[in-house]
Design goal:
The protein is an alpha/beta fold. 44% of the residues lie in helices and 15% in strands. A 7-stranded mixed beta sheet has the order 1-2-10-7-8-9-11, with helices on both faces. It is globular, with a radius of gyration of 20 Å. Bound molecules: pyridoxal-5'-phosphate.
């Protein structure tokens, strides 16, 4: 068989395997979370931790592999490389193994041990760097050195994901909301790492002309909120985010502020307090970015209540908290990092139960757009 025929056959088989894997997978759940302190407002969390690789990044990894295959960027034996905070790399290692390709994840040395183990469990290799900002250049260099391909989620997340349909996360949310009291959410709130999930949700809402507002969420040590609030692009930070998976030290190409109606910057101790409170209310651990999402959703509830509006809000449960048992769920680690948050967790319970807004939060978070 001619080399070109052999190559075409390999690419086609690779796509068939990914589509077959998709066919074998069921959709993620939409879980109602009762807010006694906000009568008339229904909150739902989209549980992306139930994907085979435990996070929302399973969707992106599938899209990035299909995008690279259909662009002719991957061949039999290509080494696949990615710059990641961990979640994307776990999902990409899964698809690389499905296709029989070597996989290298370039990550900050601070990435949790569980995530590193999860990548190695999927057959991937981890390349750790001290400076989080060096992950891009290192990924390029490693891919070039091995004659492989750098998937580059930060650039292609917004391009590789089908924002019009194809059971993307937004289409799945609207389908699952159909029989609820308020089937069209007043708000969808979620945080950004690449910005790909927000771009997909915002574009889908605009394309389908849904009467839904989209609220972005940012942790400390990230530039997305300031970029949204000022339009300034050339912002760079020395240190990276402390909330794994979200927040970036530079404005990433896949962050699309034009799809947002509002943004919230949440102090890290409140993201972690909300993570603990939600884990207790769900009876299982969720990741820290889900805590950030919950407070952004509550900022949307606050805006609705100030207008006397009833309706529904949807946010994302991005990943399983078991990955952080040695960090965010370890009190000694939290106090060592200056992130002890028991008081904040208790305050978030009171906020959900009684709608009692903690002064410390109101004085330290930042709001922009229609929630301000
Ligand atoms: C745990 C977690 N939450 C949220 C996100 C944000 O997703 P996106 O990259 O689509 O903005 C990420 C991204 O890596 C993540 O790992």
């Amino acid at each position: 068989m001619a080399a070109s025929e052999q190559r075409r056959a390999w690419v086609r088989e690779a796509i068939r395997r990914i589509e077959a894997d998709f066919q074998r997978s069921s959709d993620t759940h939409l879980i109602p979370l009762v807010l006694p302190g906000f009568p008339g407002i229904d909150l739902y969390v989209k549980d992306e931790s139930s994907h085979p690789t435990g996070s929302l990044k399973h969707r992106l990894a599938r899209s990035l592999f299909l995008y690279a295959l259909c662009n002719g960027w991957l061949d039999e034996g290509s080494t696949v490389v990615e710059a990641s905070s961990g979640s994307t790399a776990i999902s990409e290692a899964y698809f690389a193994r499905l296709l029989g390709l070597p996989f290298v994840a370039v990550m900050p040395r601070t990435t949790s041990r569980q995530k590193i183990a999860a990548i190695e469990f999927q057959g991937g290799r981890c390349h750790l760097v001290d400076d989080a900002r060096a992950v891009y250049a290192q990924s390029e260099r490693i891919a070039a050195g091995l004659g492989g391909h750098y998937l580059d989620q930060f650039t292609y997340a917004e391009r590789a994901t089908d924002w019009r349909a194809n059971n993307n996360i937004a289409e799945s949310i609207y389908t699952q909301m159909q029989r609820e009291s308020h089937p069209c959410p007043t708000w969808i709130a979620c945080s950004a790492g690449t910005g790909g999930t927000l771009a997909t949700i915002g574009r889908y809402v605009n394309h389908r002309r849904h009467d839904t507002r989209v609220c972005g969420a940012d942790p400390e040590f990230s530039v997305f909120f300031d970029h949204y609030a000022t339009g300034e692009r050339a912002i760079e930070l020395q240190a990276g985010s402390r909330i794994e998976g979200i927040g970036r030290p530079r404005v990433e190409p896949s962050f699309v502020p034009g799809v947002l109606d509002a943004m919230v910057q949440v102090p890290d101790v409140w993201s972690l307090g909300a993570m603990h409170a939600l884990s207790e209310r769900l009876g299982r651990r969720v990741g820290a970015s889900t805590g950030t999402n919950l407070l952004a959703a509550l900022a949307c509830a606050r805006a609705m209540r100030s207008r006397g509006a009833h309706g529904s809000i949807v946010t994302l449960l991005c990943d399983d908290g078991e990955r952080y048992r040695d960090t965010y769920f370890d009190d000694a680690w939290l106090s060592q990092q200056g992130l002890a948050c028991a008081g904040q967790a208790a305050a978030v319970h009171r906020l959900i139960e009684r709608g009692a807004w903690p002064d410390e939060l109101l004085q330290t978070w930042r709001l922009a757009g229609e929630v301000a």
